[in-house]
Each structure stands twice: as C-alpha cells, then as structure tokens.
Design brief:
The complex is a heterodimer of chains A (about 110) and B (about 110). Chain A is mainly β and about 110 residues long. Helix content of chain A is about 0%, strand content about 50%. The chains are: A mainly beta (about 110), B mainly beta (about 110).
Chain lengths: ~110, ~110
C-alpha cells in the first residue's frame, strides 16, 4: 500500500460536461475526506465518510456535486454540468479515526474546465 | 463560524535565523489545531498537532487560547524547511477541518 491514490491526476473538460474522480484510501482507514483547493487558498472541506456513510457535507457542495463510498473502500466524486468555477485541485484524504486521526492526503486531481 | 487566518503569504528568512509562521483562529469552543506542510512536488502532510505537544523537525507550536493563536516556530531555519505551511482547525463536533490560506516559507542560503 503506497498511500492514498487518486485518479485521474489531471482532467480537462468543457463546460457543461460531467466528470468523475476516484480516490483509493489507505486500506485499513475507515474515514475518507474530500477537499477542494483553488489557487492561493488552503484546502476547503467538501465532505466526509465514515465507512460507507456520508456523515458531513459542506454547504460548498452544491447539488451538482455528489460523492459516494459504496463499499466503504474507494470513493468517487462526481461533478455534473461543470462550470469554469469548478476548476480546482480536488484532494482526497483518509484516516484511521480514533484519537490520533491523522489525515493522509492523496496527490490530488487537477480539474480544468474550459 | 470557524475561521483560520495566516497573515503572511510569503515569509523569507536566511538559513540559521529563527522563523515564526503566524496562525490565528476564530472558534467559540475548544478546537483542535494542526500545522500541515507541503514540500515541493509532494503531498500535503501533517507536521504537528497541538494535543501532541511535541517538536517535529525542530518546529513547535503552542496553542494560546487567550490570543486565539497557534504560531509555528523554529529557532534555526534550514533550507529544507522551504515549503508551503497550512494551519488548520477542527471543531469539537464532526470532521469539518478548516484550513488557512497558507504561508510559503523560503529559507535562503
């Protein structure tokens, strides 16, 4: 296990198209997080899963965004009808939970909407 | 509302000089504070957390609840400390982490 992986690493799409990103967490980690990061800003929390349950969603997550973690392992983040403002780095992180709860981040997926 | 501010976008110091990266937060309860670091072409990673009260790579940070600050300090900066540093907060409830905008530290030879 080489850590959190994300696919694809880069995605260029036209406005109005749908895109889907995948995150594979560290295998024994039951918590999974999605963040969005735009230029010059820190990561912004989007959503959080504990196993397969989506327990928190940011108000930033409009109805065009949906995330799933169907078997409590990998997760997908889908953006429908993309807009230019969706262009950002999308980061995934996972953690074991408990008191330590250190988040391990993936390399990110960079989305460019033309 | 939870908020984290880092007033400096860029901080440049010479090798061997002390460094302090500022972080202030707003939160009504007792938050958990973190510092994350991102070295060039690497992933974001945890540097330290206030509950651990430990020194990592020579860095320390003390939570000052009166001033709502969590400044990151190192007495003698090294060139390999050059990186992007993010202060982050997690509130008492849930897993919503709030990150600051980050400070780029540049340690000059």
């Amino acid at each position: 296990d080489t850590g959190v992986s994300q696919d694809p690493r880069h995605k260029i799409t036209k406005r109005g198209q749908n895109v889907t990103f995948r995150c594979d967490p560290i295998s024994e980690h039951n918590r999974l997080y999605w963040y969005r990061q735009t230029l010059g800003q820190g990561p912004e929390f989007l959503t959080y899963f504990q196993n397969e349950a989506q327990l928190e969603k940011s108000r930033l997550l409009s109805d065009r965004f949906s995330a799933e973690r169907p078997k409590g392992s990998f997760s997908t983040l889908e953006i429908q009808r993309t807009e230019q403002g969706d262009s950002a780095m999308y980061l995934c992180a996972s953690s074991l939970g408990g008191i330590e709860n250190e988040q391990f981040f993936g390399p990110g997926t960079r989305l460019t909407v033309l | 509302a939870q908020r984290v501010t880092q007033p400096e976008k860029l901080l440049s110091v010479f090798k061997g000089a002390p460094v302090e990266l500022k972080c202030n937060y707003s939160y009504s309860g007792s938050p958990e504070l973190f510092w994350y670091v991102q070295y060039s072409r690497q992933r974001l990673q945890l540097l330290l957390r206030h509950i651990s009260r430990e020194s990592i790579k020579g860095f320390t940070a003390d939570l000052n609840k009166g001033e709502t600050s969590f400044h990151l300090k190192k007495p003698f900066a090294q060139e390999e400390d050059s990186a992007m540093y993010y202060c982050a907060l997690r509130g008492n409830y849930g897993q919503n982490f709030v990150f600051g905008p980050g400070t780029r530290l540049s340690v000059l030879p």
